Amino acid sequence: FHVILFCFLMEVCVDSVESAVNAERGGAGRLELCSSLLEGGLTPSLGVLHVVKQYVKIPIYVMIRPRGGDFLYSDLEVDVMRKDIELMKSQGADGLVLGALTEDGRVDAELCMELLAAARPLPVTFHRAFDMVHDPAVALEALISLGFERVLTSGCDSSALEGLPLIKRLVDQAKGRIIIMPGGGITERNLQRILEGSGAQEFHCSARSSRESAMKFRNTCVSMGASFSAPEYGLKVADVSKVRTLNAIAKNTL
C-alpha cells in the first residue's frame, strides 16, 4: 500500500513588493512578477525586481511582455523583449514568462526559439497568449518541442473554471512533457473543482483584495488612464489570508 503524495505549487502573480511579500507569507511557492495587472501583466521595472529579491526567498519568474493587447510583435518590440530578457537575467530573475503568436493564431515558433535561446539557462513559462491560439492541441505540441517548462492557461475561455474541460484534455495530452498551470479567475470558491477536474499540479492566481487609498485630498475630476482604468484612489494587493486559504484548499484537495 503506497501513499502517493501530491504536492501542489501555487504561483501568485504580483505587481508590487507588498504583494510579493504577502504572497510569500501566505505560502506561495513562486511569484510571477509583472507590472500593470490591469492589462494582464507587463514587464516590471528592474527596481521592482531588485527590491522584491531583497524581501522574498521564493523563485521569481519575470513577465516579458512589452505592451498590452495582442501577442503579434513588431521587430522593435522584439528588440525590447530581447533586451528585457538580458536585463532580467542579469538582475537575478529565477525564470521568465513570455509568449508570441503569428497573425493566424499559431505559436510563433521562430520568435519563441530566439527568445528561449536568449533566456537560457532560465526556465520559461508560455503565458496566456496560449488562450488566443487557433488550435490548442497543435499549439501545445509546439510548446513541448520548443522546450517551454510550462504553459499558463484558462483553457482558452474567460476563466479557468469555464475552460476546465480543455485544461483537462491538455493535462492528458501533455503526459508530463510540459506542466499545465491553470490560471484566470481562480478563487477560494472554485480552486478545488479546478484542481480535481483538471489533474493539474500547479495553479496561478492573484489572490488580491481591494484597499482604499490613504489620500485625504482627492481630485475626482482627473483620471490617469483610459476610461476602463482602475480607480485612482483604490489599490489591489495580494492578501495574505486569501493566499493562505487557497494554499490550504490545495493541500486538502487530494
From TrEMBL:
Keywords for the protein's UniProt record, in alphabetical order: Copper, Cytoplasm, Metal-binding, Nucleus, Signal
One Pfam match: CutC
SUPFAM superfamilies given in the database record: CutC-like (SSF110395)
Identification of the protein by name: Copper homeostasis protein cutC homolog
Top-rank lineage group of the source organism: Eukaryota
GO cellular component, one term: cytoplasm
Family affiliation: Belongs to the CutC family.
Subunit structure: Homotetramer.
Recorded name of the encoding gene: CUTC
PANTHER family: COPPER HOMEOSTASIS PROTEIN CUTC, COPPER HOMEOSTASIS PROTEIN CUTC HOMOLOG
